[in-house]
Amino acid sequence: MVAELILPDTTVRQTFTKDSGTTSSPYDLEASDESNHPITSSFLSIPEISPADPALVLRLILSSSLYHRPRTLSSTPIPNSANDVLKIQKTPLQVARRLSKRLDVNVMIKREDAHPEVFSVEARGVGNWLLNLLKACKEDERSVWCVNGGPQADALTLLSNRLSLPNHPTAVEAHILNPLDPYILGGYGTTATELLTQHQTDRIAAVFCPIGATPESWGLAAAVAIYVKRVAPDIRVVAVRFQHRGGKAQNNTWGHEWMDEVLEVTEDEVTMAIKDVYEDTRVIPDVFGALSIAGLIKHVRSRPAAVKTEVKTDNADAKPNRNTYIAILASANMSLDAIARWAGDMQKIQTAMEDVRR
Length: 358
Prior knowledge:
By secondary structure, the chain is of the alpha/beta class. 40% of the residues lie in helices and 13% in strands. It has a six-stranded mixed β-sheet, sandwiched between helices. It is globular and about 70 Å long.
């Protein structure tokens, strides 16, 4: 069995052979009817399913092996377990003390960059997919194939190597793994199951998740929202993306229906957010990872009066104050060249700010 990963920015579709048939495109992300996905039968336990079914995603989150066996970074490993080999760990929910003081609210960062070697939430999605592959396939059917670049592809290559799964350059059979595969979403959703156990839910005002320009990039945000809205519906889930340069962005993308808000930020705001994360964690996130922090800062600053009202109350019988804002730091995979460009952009912004003050 061979798996090929198609990433959101892929424009050329590969053709694969399976059981003497061919397929040339991934399934329609907007459709919800299983009959609209005639590509290949999944080698996992649920074949040909739409990732847009929230009930299914919720079930896969709750049944994820990553969720049932969350380990901290210091936990003693269990020998010979697939989870231990994959090194999928429970990540910290860290207080951003400097940012909290500046914004006058409790800011916390869910450190998905803490996954060893992967440094990304993709460890959860791809890891969950691989764990289900091990359960569903015989040993001689567990080969994987990844031909495209990108964070999901990097995670698939690294994690499959940890499991010693064969990697073949050519194959007769192929399974197209979409970035919105339900098992990928099930893995993403364990981020939410963890953070809701790491902090009092009645203190959390909002959770911020990054998204990109394509429907496929909504996976993390959608999975988090599906779980949070079922368990703690009063918590707002905010998706954060770059400001649309060609005018107002369309909001009818798959996954939008589960968000309380879609917030847009500028490049300068993301550049400054990277600096804020570094000052609190000594970690330099990549641009996608910093989107959620930039959105959190913009959200809080745009609602100063409402935030102060939430924080201050003398009524002992009142509901707990929701003054905690959580940003999911999805990844920290910035290259040295990108770090150099970021440093240059930071210098330009700081110079411009100094000129304004004069």
